[in-house]
Amino acid sequence: MFGKGQKSRxxxxxxxxxxxxxxxxxxxxxxxxxxxxPDDYLLHPEKRTAGGLVLAAYPxxxxxxxxIHGWWCRHAAAxxxxxxxxxxxxxxxxxxxxxxxxxxxxxDLGAAxxxxxxxDLSTTxxxxxxxxxxxxxxxxEALARARRENEEPAD
Length: 155
Fold this sequence. Notes:
This protein is mainly alpha-helical. It is 48% helix and 5% strand.
């Protein structure tokens, strides 16, 4: 994946998303070659009939930004994250912020910075370094658990 400044991005994936990507990649292409090639785009332009039948696929071409946005919105709706037909709200950049905030909450600022591939931790701290009461609650619960685990059992 490429990000700001056309930097190559590595995104570690786990769980169901890996299984879904594998399922998608193992399906034969609807039009053209039977197997994807290493330089094919995962998402690529297609020409379809009104009924959805793929007439032509162009896996060597990058999708346009508006087409990717439409794809994102359809899948966000299918996942129940936004209402059907919504084309704003949970955009990709906002999802990146949500991911980074959630990761910072369960790991730390350094993990979020690494995942986002910020070149300087201060960039991550400026954007994701804010804390709220839910962060304090989680920290207090973690402290209580750690203290319970370190208590010596009575004889």
